Amino acid sequence: MSGPGSRCVPPGSRPMRGRCGSHRITGDNTQQKDKQEPMATITAEMVRELREKTGVGMMDCKKALTDADGDMTKAVEGLRKAGMAKAEKKATRTAKEGRVVVSMDKNVVALVEVLCETDFVATNEKFQAYEKALAQRVATSYSVDGDLSAQVVAAEKGALADLINVLGENIQVRRVIRWQTDGAFACYMHMGGKIGVLIDAAGETDPKLLSDACMHIAAFSPRFVGPADVPAEVLAKEKEIAAAQVGDKPANMIEKIVTGKISKWYNESCLMLQPWIRDDKKSLTKVAPNLKVKRFVRWQVGESV
Asked: Is the pLDDT score of 6 beyond 70?
C-alpha cells in the first residue's frame, strides 16, 4: 500500500516530470548557460582611455564599451555614430553665438565663422581649438580662392558630429573664405572674434594704415569699396528709392535731387568715401590716395546673410 497522499502509477504509464512552480526541471537551461560566452570586463582604465580619445562623458564611454563587448575600436565607432545622430537632432536648434577666426600665412589667408548655441561653449577651449585648426586646414589644404563654405561644411560633417557629442550643443560651420594675394593682407578681430574683418590690398600698404582701415570697417560697416564696386541692380534700386522720395517735381529737378541723394549714399556706403576713423573731415581716398583696396569682408557672428 502506498502512504497517505501518494499516487498509484498504473503499470506501463509514463511517470510525470517533476515541476518547480510553473517551470519544468530539465537539464536544458544548464546546457544553455554553459554555452553563453562570458561578458568582457569593462575596467576604469578602459573607460578613461576611451574618454581621452573621444572627449565623451564617462557614462557614455562605459556604455559604448559594454555595447562593443570591450572592443575599443568598435566603441569609438559606436560613439561616432551616436554623435552623428545627436548632431542631426540638434541641427534645428538656434546657433547664434560663436567666433570668427583667421589663419594667415604669407600670401594665403583663411577666415572662418563657426557658430554654437551659447557663449559658454564659444569660450570653451575645445571649441576654440577646433576653430583654429579648421582655419589652418582651410589655408593649407585647399587651393581655391574665394568662398569655400559649401565644400568645408561637407568635409567637416564627421568632425562636427564628434565635437557636438562632446560639447552637447548645435555647432555649425557657417562661412569660410580662402584668399590668395600678390599684395598684402590685414585683419582685425573685435570683441574676441565677435566681429572679424579682412582686407586684401595693394599699392600703399603700410601695416598701420591697413590696421586702421580694418578698424574703420569694423566700426562703420561699409558695404562696398567704392562707387565702381556697387552692383548695377543695387544702384538701380537706390535710384528708384531716391526718386520716390522726391515727389511731384519737374523732371530736371528730380534728376538733380536724385544725383545728390546717390552721392550722399555713396559717401555712407563706400569704404573709400566714408568719413575716416582717424579724421572725420577726410576720407580714406584723401588720406591714402595710392592705396588700392581690392576686396574686404566684415563678418559679425550670427548676423543675417
From this structure: no
